[in-house]
Amino acid sequence: MSRMLDLIRASALPAHQMMSASKGALRLPEVESLEILVYIAEHNKIFGEAARLTLAGWDQASSQTIAADPKTPVEILAYWLSSKNLSPALFPILIENSAVSITRLSELAATLKSEMLDVMIASPRVRKLPQVLQDLSTNHNLSGTQAARLKALIAGKTFVETESDEPVAADVVASVVPDAPSQIAHLEPNEIFSPVQAQPEPVAAKPPELHEENNNVLADDPEAEVAINTFFKEHAKEIESQPEKPFHAIGGIHEDILEAEEPKVMAATAATAAAGASTSTTPLTAPAQPRVSHKPPVKPDDGKRDSVLQKIGKLDIKGRIQLAMKGTKEERSILVRDGTKIIALAVLDSPKITDGEVEKFAGQKNVLEAVLRAIPMKRRFAKNYAVVRALVFNPRTPLDVSLGLMKNLLVADLKNLSGNKEVAETVRKLALRMFRQKNEATKKS
User: Fold this and answer.
1) How far apart are the C-alpha atoms of 328 and 350, rounded to whole Å?
2) CA 133/CA 290 separation, integer angstroms
């Protein structure tokens, strides 16, 4: 233990040095600085918040190197593994570190939530530890798919990775090329998105013909059929557990219809008024004008959105998944708000979805938290700066996801984020600190 940490433990350090220590500003080796920060964050009421912010904004590449080192002090590893500090960027590395005990892995296995369970199930180290696999299988937060994967692993079956970032049983496909993990933390330096690059939208292809006998679900799309079959196999238990759950849009759907139609109504009303004014003569001799109705003119596509909602409302879960994979942009924009998580996630796996759509979803406040968590777990979307920016600026995005992504923001966006009162205070404070650091670094260079 360092002499500086001894002094901090004994409360023998002056206040100004404690402030420097909580900001990571002491001239000490990196690991020693982290050890001091962890102690302050955990045990000091005055400077603890500042230390936690410093730890949250610590250089990601450096953190990953330290997280992988078996010689790293256990206090640092324990801090990063606590439920309130789990990071998608560090967790996959931490659980492979031999300094993290099997007992701690078992504790995590029994209590983890959300996508971290997927990371643990995919861990090469965990897959070699039968006791940890058994503890994972008792976790009440497991989805049907996760439980099925664990059952197969415990039984000795193998899995391979597909391009959709989802493990598939070996008997599902003949051969695939394993894809790298989808977390943004695992991207190579030359694969990180470029803030100035704009990714063009793919040219929309003519949709396949509709098959009325199949509830109007699109057919004749081989690429989508493969995606659907894979998705059904991966999520079989989840689908079977709620086959009759009806469609319900998060936040409602009709306000969107009104918002979309309002400009059309205003334009039609203005045009009618202008036509009436142009035919008038003088106030005394003007001919009587027919009463102008405030009802907007009927157009052929007025009921289009309602018909889409009606079609979706008639479909069961399997039908909605097929539509999410094979349907139109409008249908995806509705289904991504489905209150049934598996439907909303199926939209992100659609081979037809564009980066522009995902950017819009990333900024929406009326989608499930699971959608906002899943977006940066896809390699394609994690490399898109506009998508990442939309996620960080969305107050609905989980705090751990925002903190993990915001270090990639440009200086101007960090400045704007620091003044955005919609996001969490922790995000604003860290954004302000990162803005100042990057701004100073730019001036020095």
Assistant:
1) 10
2) 78
| pLDDT tens digit sequence for 181-232 | 334 444 443 344 444 344 444 444 444 444 433 444 444 577 778 888 888 8
Contact partners, residue 264, CB within 8 Å, separation at least 6: 296
Q: Which residue blocks in 299-424 are alpha helix, DSSP H?
A: 304-314, 317-326, 329-335, 341-348, 355-363, 369-374, 379-382, 385-393, 399-405, 411-418
294, 303, 305 from 300: Cα distances, Å: 18, 8, 12
The full set of domain ranges for the chain reads 1-94, 207-259+303-353
Query: pLDDT tens digits for 435-444?
Result: 988 888 777 7
Helix axes 48-56, 425-444, angle to 10 degrees: 60
Label residue 112 left, alpha or beta by phi (over 0 means left) and psi (-120 to 50 means alpha).
Answer: beta
Could you tell me whether strands 159-161 and 167-169 are parallel, antiparallel, or unpaired per DSSP bridges?
antiparallel
Distance CA 325, CA 322 (A): 5
What's the pTM value of the predicted model, to 2 decimals?
Answer: 0.53
